[in-house]
Each structure stands twice: as C-alpha cells, then as structure tokens.
Fold this protein.
Amino acid sequence: MVGITSYGAYIPRLRLDRMSIFQSMGWFAPAVVMVAQGERSMCNWDEDSLTMAVAAARDCLTGVDRSRVDGLYLASTTLPFADRQNAGIVATALNLRSDILTADFTASQKAGSGALITALDAVNGGERHQVLVAAADRRETKTAYFYEMWFGDGAAALCVGDQNVIAEFLGSHSVSYDFVDHYRGAGDKYDTMWEERWARDEGYAKILPEAVNGLMDKLGITMDDVDQLVFPCFFKAEHRKIAAMLGAGKGKVADNLHDHCGETGTAHSLLMLTKALETAKPGDRILVAGFGQGCNALLFKVTENILDLKGRDGVKGCLENKKTIDNYPKFLTFRELIQTEMGLRAGAPAQTAMTALWRKRQMLLGLVGGRCEACGTAQFPKMDICVNPGCGALRTQQDYEFADVPATIKTFTADLLAVSVDPPHCYGMIQFDGGGRFMADFTDCTMEDLKVGLPMRMVFRKRSQDSDRGFVNYFWKATPVPGARERMNRIHFDGQVAVVTGAGGGLGRAYALELAGRGARVVVNDFGGTRDGAGSGDRSPADRVVEAIKRMGGEAVANYDNVATVEGGENIVRSAVDAFGTVDILVNNAGILRDKSFAKMEPDAWDAVMAVHLDGAYHVTRPAFAVMKEKGYGRIVMTTSAAGLYGNFGQTNYAAAKMALVGLMNTLKLEGAKYDVRVNTVAPLAASRLTEDILPPDMFQKMKPELVAPLVVYLCSDRCSETGTIFNTGMGCVNRAAVMTGPGAAIGDLAHPPTPEQIHENWARINTMEDAKPLADLTSALMDLMTPVQ
Ligand code: NAD
C-alpha cells in the first residue's frame, strides 16, 4: 500500500492582529477594514520558507526512522536561493542520508500538491520507499493591501511511503492551464494581481471543480463517498460556493484557516490536509485539491495506522502556541518593508566562507556535535580531544545530533547593545540533557519569558543575512518549549497534605478537588448533615469527593467527624497524620445556617451556629497548628462572610461567629509568624445549598464555587507570603477587606480631659477615614492612638 505515512506542520508563533493593519494604514486604504478581522501568522525576523520547512519536516519526522528517507521534495515560491538547492539545505539540517534525491518545486501555488503527487508516483513506481515532501511560503505584499490580510506564513510536511501508511493514496487528477490570476516576475519581490473577480470566477470557480470532478469521474465516486473536501481559497464566499457546487455541505468542507493563520501559499493545501488528518478516523476519505495555473486533486483513505501516530505539534499545536501582536511597524520591520537604521556594527560582511560551510556543514546546519566513545561525554562542537578532564581521550568523538536533545537554560542575558532586529538580543548558555552545552541565541521569546532551568528546544533559524551578496546564514537557536514557563510557574502541592472541612459539597468540594489536582494529598472532611446542621452520618458527600479525586489520579481520604466537638477536631487532624504523615494546609470551611431575626434568635440557633463556625475552627486548628508549629510550615484559611464583615438582616448568630473568626486569625497570625504558619481569611460568594434560596437564579448560575477556589488555593500555597488578611471573592473577582483605622484627632489630655461637647464638635475629624490604615496588632494600634494627628 502506498500513501501518507506521517504529517507535520509549522505555523510561526507570531500572529498579527489584522485590525492593526487597518489602524496604521486605514487613513490611506480605508477599504481594508472589510477584511480586518482575525489574525494572520507572521514569521519572526529570523524565519523564512526554509526554516519553516525544516520545522514542519522535523514535526513530520517525529517517530520516523530518518535513515529510511530516500527523497526530499521542497515546494515554495519564496525560497531564499535561486541557485543553490534549497531542498539540499533542508536535508542537511535534518541530517538525512546523502544518497537521496532532493529537488525544489516552485513557481506556482500548486507546487505543494505537485510535489506530493510526484512523491507518490515515485513510491508507487517502486523507485523510492520514503519521500519527505515539505512546502512553505512567506509571501510579501505591499502594505495596506487585501492580500496582506489574506496571506499568512506557514509550512507543512508529509512523508509518503510504502510502509505504515496512515492514508492510502487512491488516485489523482491534474489539469494544467496557463491561467494568470497573478504572477511574480523573476527577481521581483511582490506579486502582480489581476482583478479579484477574474481570479474568482474564471479561475477558482471553473478550474478547481474541473480537477475535482475529473478525479471523482476517474475513480467512479461522487461527493457522497468523500468525508472531507480540502482546498484553499482565500475568497471566503467563493470557498463556500465552490464546495456547494461540488456537493459538499458545511460539515464536509475543511476550514481554510483564514481566521487564525491566513493562506500559506504553496503550503496551504498540505497544511489543510494535515489539519484534516489530525481529526480523521480510519475509513475516512479525504479529497484534497491545490489550485494554481491549473489544479491537482488527490484522494486518500485513512487507515487504522493513524491511531498510532502521536506526539507531534501538527496544526493544532501550532495554532495553540501563539503570541498575537498589534505592532504593525514591527511586522514591516521584520519583513524589511521599512528600512530601519541598524547601526555601524550591522554593516560587517556576514557571509560564511563557503569552504568553512562545506567542511563544517554537519555542525552548522545539522547541529551535530560529538560524543566520546571512551567516556560518553557529549560536547559541542566536536573536537579531537574529549572535554571531560577525567578522560581527555584523543580522536574518540562520534557524531552526536543535538537538535532533538532536550535542553534547559543555564544562564541568560538580554543585550540592548548587540545588533538585533528585535532588541534586546536574548542569548545564554544551554545545557543539554545527558551532557553538552553551548552559548545559543534565543528566539521567539522576550526577557520576561526566560528563567534559569527553563526547558528549551532547538530551532533552525536565520542567523544573519548578507544582503549585498544575497546570502543567508542559518544556524540553530534555542526557544522555550511551549507551555514550559507556565508549567514551571504552576502552583503545586506535591508532597503536601491538606485538610478541608465541610468538603463534601459546595465550596469545600471545589477547594479539595483543586488542591488534589495540583498534587496535594487531601483529607476530605464532611459530617454529612443538613443545611441547618441537623442530622449526621451521611458519609456519601465526603466519599463522592474522595472518589472524584482518585478518578483524576489524586490521593485523598474521607473523614466524617463533626468539627463542632473537641474529639471531632482531633480526629480530623489524626486522619491526616495517620494517612499521610503530616498537615501542611488547613481550610476551615464547614458551615451551617440557622437564620432568625434577633428577637426570635433562641439559644439553640445561636449555639449551633457558634459551635460549627467558631468552635469548629478552633477544634480543628488547634491540633493542626501543633503539627505546623513543629514542622515550621503551615497555611491556614478561615472562612468568614460578608454577613459578618458588613452585617446581614436575620443572621446575628452567623455574623457574630464569622466575625469572631477574623479575631481568631488576627492573633493566630502573630503566634504562627515565627514558624512560617500563615493565616488568612476569605469571605466567599458562591452558589451552594447555603445560598440557593437567597440568590436570584441567573446570579446563582454565574457564581460557581470553582471561581472562588483559585484565591483559596493560592492562600494555601508556599508562593503566598501574605498573613492576617481578609479577602472577598466570587465570580472571578477578588478584593481585600480590612479593619482600618482613621487618623483621628487629639482633643484633650490628662490635664484637659475632652468633654462630650468637644467630641460632638470634632465628630467629623474623628470619623474621617481619609488616610486610614490597617494596623498590624494591638501594640501598633496603641502606638497609633497615642500619636494622633494634631
Ligand atoms: P455547603 O452547605 O454547600 O457546604 C458546607 C459543608 O459543611 C456541607 O457539606 C456540610 O455537610 C458541612 N458541614 C456542616 N457542618 C459540619 C460539621 N459540624 N462538621 C463537618 N462538616 C460540616 O455551603 P458552602 O456555601 O459551600 O459554604 C462553605 C463555607 O463558606 C461556610 O463556612 C459558609 O458559611 C461560607 N460562606 C459561603 C458563602 C456562599 O456564598 N456560599 C458566603 C459566605 C460564606
């Protein structure tokens, strides 16, 4: 069976917000606003068609035995060299064998699909067994032009072979016409376009259907036999119309990626095909067409092998790894569409001597270093002597490819004085796993993205350009692994133990799940009573949360004790110590309500609420604090309420208990400070059974407990150094609440005690909260009172 064996894609990380083109140039070309939606991909200053082709090919070669590749076809109309085979540079960068056929396909938008058919024919004929087809384009347009909006930069790569086929090749049909909707003269930078309706009506709308229908006739199928129709066409309405004309409804025609990327020239039909393959199921038939001076149409049938193809970025990964900019002058600078003064140093000749380039080609283009046969030390560059001082062996270096070896940053700097198209120039020492390091330029990142220890990957990029001689120097640079910085920054609780009271439902459940999801081992306490604290013994709420944590791969135990008793508190903490050995985090969350107006507030309702909220926090915190003090670390979160902080009709018991917790925190923060035990308080606002009859239904929907959990989880983390602070939080908003003290007024002294009349006269000064401040403790409050504003 012959067909596609692997796929890969590359879309540059940078995206230009199309509206920024209009914002800068709308004064000149107001009509471009009509197409100024979404974003287009744009190369960094050090990227071109060749570097993008290498990136897509590397993605495609993930898990592929490179020694089996016996052909490399490169398609593009924007290749850096008119006479130096570009495919040869790509093959050297990929460290492919030298006894292979390399060829450039160019001069038409259908060169990508043409290269693919040629590769399939070569394998079909038995002449070759594994051909890599890469296509890339970085087309230029003049500024403030529709095509500038429609075009994007990108690349795709497909391996075509006779083993492990993921999409069987069923046939192709081509039509060839010298139809000139646009052209680029030899040596010209920009395309000359003919009228859009000419390209649309005479070109796309006639030639594309002719090729597709020709293929279907040849294979004896109809559009009903096709699951996905893939063809580029940047005229949005025309794309839809042609699909409809061919009998392909909305669900069958592949998205042309206009909103997120733009059209990537010769690469685009292959890029769209790659995207289709990413979600295809075995048995799906994909018809792909590439337009340009005629049209190529090909049909594939997806096989079971596609299920085994994993671990590549593909179009999906590339679309996710993005940085959107609205800096249009930057786009123009990167593409040399405006001339920037680069300074004297930039004028030095940059062309590598061709002799050195030949001798060191593996090192420069393939990032091949050496590894000592005697001691296994890896080094870059490869030399005659092993760099290991304990070895120093002579001529023992074997070739060692560094390009795919994981690496991390050892040191880095951002240099504002170095010549750079995108200052500051970031570079530093890269440490490869398993040994080997070198000073590398960094790309696709800013100073703020960098951190010692950050995982990096190597990318093939332009190092410099000698414009006088039309020569581009390529080398390898380091770039942060997508998502690595976020993973490094992620707050986690690996090795820590958390106790959450009342975690069987509502807010406590959300806290427990989030803490466990970030690595904490959790004691899920819940007494299982009703909303007013009556009843007990229902173990299911706590059990369900423990099951949910275990299902997501976390660790948790249930505890059903009542926080309102001394033994209950001790048992809860003992559960943590017995099951996990310690307690690092305590969230006092259990709560009930027994609302009554004060006149009807019987002692039962008063005592029950005090017992759960205030006594409960005391009972659990006391044994937990003992463990934390002993180990010199702890994070405690109390749960207050806006009812306590500000008052709420019918909740005197609840408000008193909740405000008492603030008092408990104020003193515990002082006693815990020396042991790194930090205590904070949250006043949450969330949908739960406590609030279901208080809140209007539409508000209730928006107030998920998950929107409160992030603050609580942060307060539970070692990243949080805050202590003794109160926060209101709900619906994704957080603010600080505090007991504030105003500047006050000195009205009298021992010799002249203030009179009630003077108090009355100074009422406004006494009450002012202008310049009010929170005070750290009683002593500070005393000092503050003794030194009032005169
Ligand atoms: P909830 O009723 O869903 O959760 C409280 C949990 O505590 C229940 O699962 C309950 O079984 C458990 N519980 C009650 N008494 C217990 C006891 N003696 N021992 C052990 N567990 C017990 O309510 P929720 O809204 O998630 O409330 C959580 C906390 O947040 C409470 O302290 C509440 O006062 C406070 N709070 C909530 C809001 C809000 O908007 N939901 C507002 C302010 C304060």
